[in-house]
Amino acid sequence: MASRLHFNALLAPEGRRLPVERCETGPIAHVAEGMGISRATASKWANRYWRFGELGLLDRSSSPIRLRSATPGQLVKHIESMRCEHKWPASRITFEFNHVETPVTRCTTSRPLAQLGLNTRKSITPNGETSRRPQRASAGRPGRMVHLDVQKVERSPDGGGQRVHGNGSGDARAAARTRAHGVVTGCGYLHSATDGYSRLAHTEALSDGKAVTTVAFLGRAKAWFASHGITRIERVVTHDGSSCRATTFRGVVGSNRHQRIGPRTPRQKGEFERCT
Q: What is the pTM of this model?
């Protein structure tokens, strides 16, 4: 345990060596009086040094040796094994113990994890890997679920940028100078509709992502799916933006089920990005 005293304090770890050295040549009472400390304090550090050596001059931990309500060691081992093997959080480990009729609280589970250094995600996955199994959203039949989303992308300059010509090439630097001189390429909006069963996707690059544009795109997407054999759409999955909450959009969806994905939920965006 690290000392909380200042390094130059009178009875810092280095200052405690002084009464020990003086006690070898004189009485403890005279040494204590000369240093301005009590006889008991001087005797304490001298006896600790003679008994434990250099470790005796360091501060000891104030935590008790035994606790009446301490978590059993076997339980701590089970918590550690479940954390390392399954990478479960404290709430899941608590649920598993309660399921097998071993009632523990979440605090009882979290405390040993913090003491073992396993309370953070980085401690159990130092390489950054994830323990979640990727699941693919799918439907049971064509038209059962159609994903609709809008992605705002920046337009590439004429002739392409560094991804086409390479970073640091002459053409890439020319495109950067064109942008620096005030030539704005602007942004485009990719509207995409993807069937959840066949992964058949229809994408259009439009000028904006407003409700009127989205409604018109959905009508064209329905006609495009119908030309490919998907004549009935049962559910439309969209983001929670204003364009998909508009009254005109709900009118186009009609009797079909409209499911909106909440914010900060990447599953819908991932489906769209994989298709585009």
A: 0.50
Q: Give me the numbers of helices (H) and strands (E) for the chain, helices first please.
A: 13, 5
Q: Angle formed by the axes of helices 73-86 and 90-99, to 10°?
A: 120
What is the mean pLDDT for each group of 10 consecutive residues in the chain (276 residues)?
A: 61 80 85 86 87 84 78 89 88 88 87 89 73 69 87 71 65 67 70 88 88 91 92 87 85 85 65 57
Q: Domain locations in the chain?
A: 1-61, 73-124, 146-275
Where would I find the H helices in the chain?
Answer: 17-23, 28-35, 39-52, 73-86, 90-99, 106-116, 121-124, 162-165, 170-180, 211-227, 242-245, 247-253, 266-275
Amino acid at 196: G
Instruction: State the Cα–Cα distance between residues 158 and 173, nearest whole angstrom.
Output: 13
Question: What phi and psi, each to the nearest 5 degrees, are found at residue 22?
Answer: -75, -30
CATH number for the segment(s) 146-275: 3.30.420.10
